[in-house]
């Protein structure tokens, strides 16, 4: 009997010691591992991201509006970069943080414009001739808008980005049947990266290239929608950092996180899209698009003044 009591007492002591040790480790495991009073560097909450803020830092953003130039490059998916360095998508994302609205301005890729230092040519040649910097200067010259930042991505990067967002929801009024790219059924559905790329590149639309530009805007609007939803998630900083490291952009990590958090506070995703007006024609034996300067000034003025796109430019 005494032996059993002794065993029970010993087990009780061990149990109490074990419980105390567990509490100690839960309350301060780092001190236990590194030693009290010693220098230590706390583990980063997100690998590769130094202390990412969950919310924008105190104080307003340093700008009232931001113009981001999106450049969609004509290579990837097996299409070599050599000889295919044109930017076949040129879209300005105008974010107005006071009005909490976003506008999109697309410039048709065949727009026949003056490229600084290179004479007149299709605007999509600007990137091939001088990279993102020349493309920015060209768009600034054509629109009169300053381009604060740029983001360039090719076919593979666009597909990867859409998949990173978990796909994007769209509703197609008619199916896309493109013998070169593939098919997408009509109706409401979630497009993966490959399908979204078909929608962005296909010319299987009644209005051809101009309607393709509008379809590209639809995709960007849905990406913004997905981004707004994900911006409030605890892992948003890590997610945005992964996306940023894989793209050609001059947005900084801190800037992107702050912009995303600010965008997440918008009451609704109010995005209007417009296309630079003009007419088709020919120059140097090639089919081109001649911009309407007066119409473009009206469109740009409306975007900058009130972040709205008049119906005739949609």
Give an account of the 3D structure.
By secondary structure, the chain is of the alpha+beta class. The protein has a single domain (65-313), classed as Aminopeptidase. It is 41% helix and 23% strand. It has helices spanning 2-27, 29-34, 125-143, 155-164, 193-201, 208-230, 236-245, 253-264, 293-306; strands at 65-73, 87-96, 101-106, 112-115, 119-122, 149-153, 168-172, 176-178, 182-184, 187-191, 248-249, 271-275, 278-283, 286-291. The strands form 5 sheets. It has a 6-stranded mixed sheet with strand order 11-6-1-2-3-12, with helices on both faces. A two-stranded antiparallel sheet has the order 4-5. It has a two-stranded antiparallel ribbon with strand order 7-10.
**SSE run:** HHEEEEEHEHEEEEHHHEHEEEH
* Separation, N- and C-terminal Cα atoms: 92 Å
Apparent shape: globular
Question: Radius of gyration in whole Å, from Cα?
Answer: 27 Å
Fold topology:
Layout (H helix, E strand, L loop, with lengths): L1 H26 L1 H6 L30 E9 L13 E10 L4 E6 L5 E4 L3 E4 L2 H19 L5 E5 L1 H10 L3 E5 L3 E3 L3 E3 L2 E5 L1 H9 L6 H23 L5 H10 L2 E2 L3 H12 L6 E5 L2 E6 L2 E6 L1 H14 L8
Helix pairs in contact: 4-5, 5-6, 6-8
Highlighted features:
single chain, 314 residues, alpha+beta, Aminopeptidase, 6-stranded mixed beta sheet, two-stranded antiparallel sheet, 9 helices, disordered N terminus
Structure in a nutshell:
The protein has nine helices and 14 strands. It is of the alpha+beta class.
